[in-house]
Design goal:
D-Maltodextrin-Binding Protein, domain 2, 5-stranded mixed beta sheet, 310 residues, 3 domains, 10 helices, Double Stranded RNA Binding Domain, globular
Length: 310
């Protein structure tokens, strides 16, 4: 019996995502013995400091990518929003799965939309992207930094007396948390993180067996949309240290993309968008980034980073 090892983080959400991939592989390839290699990443260990202060996206993937490179796993399953723009030499994102709901969700017993929250309401989020967009809509809100997995953040909402938290709809859906009172925030109101809702399947570049086994899980429309988003992020050299958002859809064979860069308080926000056929999605994402940089985004990034993309 052929063995195939998936590297994943150990949170309930990560295991649910990796489990979905394992189930699909079992259906596609009867007789394939799929095993999990559960890895604790740096991002899982550091829970008392905002991501922006400790290195951002790569914290959730480095140890998993090391397992791939060292042959301790054949496949890594990531939330695409956690994957840095540049991959280590020798690895590639071979598959992007069909996207779950990409929208953020407002979890609150007090309101079904952001404008309905009480004046001065405390809102929990670990994301500078969410913080900036929330403050742009409601400057009166008080942001409370919230780290940890989905269940931890929901628990902390009650423990800290918060009026709301903002989480990814995809995570709540994948965990089957239908009982949680929440409302999906339209993308026109709050742009999601790049890659939000999609899974990335990463392999060694020279592993033809793994590439062949997982190929049927690729979703071309999602892959094209995510290509535009990631190219946008890469051009901005963005991570968790600055509010950057980007979301693309594919409608009637055309990739439609919207992106933004904001300051930390949500007082200044530069937006842009574009349209392109799927094969030009990445080029279009880079072009939108150039337009945003020229339209004031470079100055915002310079303030946050100390220096901005050239």
């Amino acid at each position: 019996m052929s063995k195939f090892i998936i590297a994943t983080r150990g949170s309930r959400l990560a295991l649910a995502q990796a489990g979905w991939v394992a189930t699909r592989l079992g259906e596609l390839h009867p007789g394939l013995q799929v095993e999990m290699n559960i890895i604790k990443t740096t991002g899982d260990k550091i829970l008392d400091v905002p991501l922006a202060q400790v290195g951002g996206k790569g914290l959730f993937v480095k140890e998993i990518e090391d397992a791939l490179l060292e042959g301790r796993a054949d496949l890594a399953v990531h939330s695409m929003k956690d994957v840095p723009s540049e991959l280590p030499q020798g690895l590639e994102l071979a598959v992007v799965s069909q996207r779950e709901d990409p929208r953020d969700a407002l979890v609150s017993p007090l309101a079904v939309e952001i404008k309905g929250l009480p004046t001065g309401a405390k809102v929990g989020t670990s994301s500078l992207r969410r913080q900036a967009q929330l403050l742009a809509l409601r400057p009166d809100l008080e942001m409370v930094s919230l780290r940890g997995n989905v269940e931890t953040r929901l628990r902390k909402m009650n423990e800290l007396g918060l009026q709301a938290v903002v989480l990814a709809s995809a995570g709540l859906n994948r965990l089957g948390l239908d009982q949680v009172e929440r409302t999906a925030i339209p993308t026109a109101t709050m742009l999601p993180a790049v890659g939000q809702g999609a899974l990335g399947l990463e392999i060694r570049g020279d592993d033809a067996r793994a590439r062949e086994l997982i190929a049927p899980l690729n979703h071309p429309d999602t892959a094209a949309a995510v290509a535009a988003e990631r190219a946008f992020l890469a051009r901005l050299e963005g991570g968790c240290q600055v509010p950057i958002a980007g979301h693309a859809t594919v409608e009637k064979g055309i990739v439609k993309f919207n992106g933004l860069v904001a300051d930390l308080q949500g007082r200044r926000m530069v937006t842009g968008g574009g349209l392109a056929p799927p094969e030009q999605a990445a080029q279009m994402g880079r072009q939108v980034a150039e337009e945003i940089l020229a339209g004031g985004g470079r100055e915002i990034l310079a303030e946050v980073y100390g220096e901005a993309p050239k």
